[in-house]
Amino acid sequence: MSKKRKIQQLKCIITDYVASMIAWAGFFFLRKSTEIDSNTNLFSTVVNDHTFWNGVLLIPLFWIVIYFLVDDYRKPFRKSRIQEIGKSTIVVLIGSVILFFLVILDDNVVDYRGYYKYFFQLFMCQFVMTITSRLIVTSITLKRIREKKAGFKTLMVGSNGNAINTYRELNKKNNLSGNLFVGFVNVGEYEHYSLDKELPHLGDYNDIPKLIKEYDIEEVIIAIEQSEMSIVQSIIAILEDADVIIKIKPLVQDILLGAVKTSGIFNVPMIEITPTPMPVWQQVIKRFIDILISVLAIIIGLPVYIIAGICVHRSSPGPIFYTQERIGIHGKPFKMLKFRSMYIDAENNGPQLSSKDDPRITPWGKIMRKYRIDELPQFFTVIIGKMSLVGPRPERQYYIDQITQRAPYYRLLLRIKPGITSWGQVKYGYAENVDEMIERLPYDLLYIENMSLAMDLKILIYTVKIVFEGRGE
Q1: Which of 328, 366, 417, 466 is the least buried, fewest Cβ under 10 Å from its Cβ?
Q2: How crowded is residue 309: how many other Cβ atoms within 10 Å of its Cβ?
Q3: pTM for the full model?
């Protein structure tokens, strides 16, 4: 994260904290003004009340936590005033409801209409102060962006017509994209590059990871020629571990297919790939759901665990559980735990994928696979944080190496935690070879593009349906 971005985030946090202090103070004065008689000094009553000072110091912390959970501080230079008003209205409304039930509902109120009045006062004080302070900060930031005094360091991938047109459009004086270009890298080899008259030439696209670290790049814009489009997959694969936003200058068909997103009417339309597909608040809820369902599944399914373990032990010699190294988020290996469904030494001849009539599978193993009982121990892996309930199925490095040779964009799946079940597994099922893994890949890529709590719920429901129907394979 760049120093300017950290400073801007700190400014936003301090502004919100001060605004929330003023909002709570205003709300407290309004409440007290209706509770004391006209002969009592309102100011001295309030400042001598310890609950006033506790609220002024602690309530703003509540709001800062709420703003963090909804990702208000992740993109401090990517805010628009209209979006700020819309999002803040919803967040303040939800936060006011929570605060009302935590702080105000237990107060002694003679008439229930007093609750409505207090809630309205609380909401309006927080809303007015939040919107006012944020619009001021956003307006100042947009002015600095327009003057090229603020923004985020950007690397251009491309060197000729498409790249130079994109650069000039984004670099217009009235453009509020916030891109501060440090240079460009070429894709194809040419005698000369049109863009080198505008930007420094920093190397070719294979140098991108090194340049991101060297120049603290926050955004990579891919604007290559139509004849070079086949290399896009390789560029995206190179960027799989980079904490940067990737934007691709689209072709006309991409626009017609609705793949292009833009956040403002003056922005250049781009296909955008973000490093974190889900907002922080959804990530927090997703993790909570992972732990809750996994704990419940282990407790409720304990008899199944015991019976399955006994049957594995009796079905063939060997251990009850089977661990295998898989590749997880950011390419980090972990041990995946399953009930053993094959005879021991099943891979003496090297890594092999299982098939429908695989002779290595024990009779009990076939039953377990049909109803996915062998997957039950993975709930423990979910609890310790190596996997999620829903996410792309983790593979072994041996197969990942083969897949990425033919489909480099597979590495995009490593941006998120792998899962017990996935969209690819629900729609396609288990893969018996690398060809089928590649055929299943688009479903998992679609999941990342549409990742949400609602999507997870749909996948879980279909997974349960498949399990009860015995269509595990």
Answers
A1: 366
A2: 16
A3: 0.68
Judge residue 384's burial from the number of C-beta atoms within 10 Å of its C-beta, 0-12 exposed, 13-18 middle, 19 or more buried.
Answer: exposed
The 3-state DSSP class for residue 201 equals strand
Angle at 131 between CA 28 and CA 452, to 5 degrees: 110
Residues of the chain with pLDDT under 50: 252-253, 255-257, 259, 263-266
Rounded Cα–Cα distance for residues 118 and 100 (Å): 8
* 152-273: CATH superfamily: NAD(P)-binding Rossmann-like Domain (3.40.50.720)
User: What's the pLDDT score for residue 253?
Assistant: 47
Helix, strand and coil in the chain, % to nearest 5:
55, 10, 30
Side-chain-facing half-sphere of 306: CA atoms under 13 Å = 5
373 neighbors 339 (Cβ within 8 angstroms)? yes
3-state SS, residue 338: strand
CA distance 324 to 396: 8
Which amino acid, one-letter code, is at 113? R
CATH 3.40.50.720 domain residues, the chain: 152-273
Alpha-helical (H) ranges within 36-112 are 42-47, 50-69, 81-99
Alpha-helical (H) ranges within 171-301 are 208-215, 232-238, 252-256, 280-300
Nearest to 430, CA basis, from 344, 353, 373, 325? 353
Fill in the amino acid letter for 5: R
pLDDT at residue 81, rounded to an integer: 77
- The closest of 245, 264, 20 to 142, measured between CA atoms, is 264
How high is the pLDDT of residue 20? Answer: 95
Residue 178: exposed, middle, or buried by beta-carbon count in 10 A (0-12, 13-18, 19+)?
buried
| CB distance 127 to 89 below 8 Å | yes
**Res 417: pLDDT:** 93
Closest CA to 270 of 182, 140, 170: 170
Query: Nearest CA to 267 among 143, 161, 157, 166?
Result: 166
Check residue 174 and give its pLDDT: 62
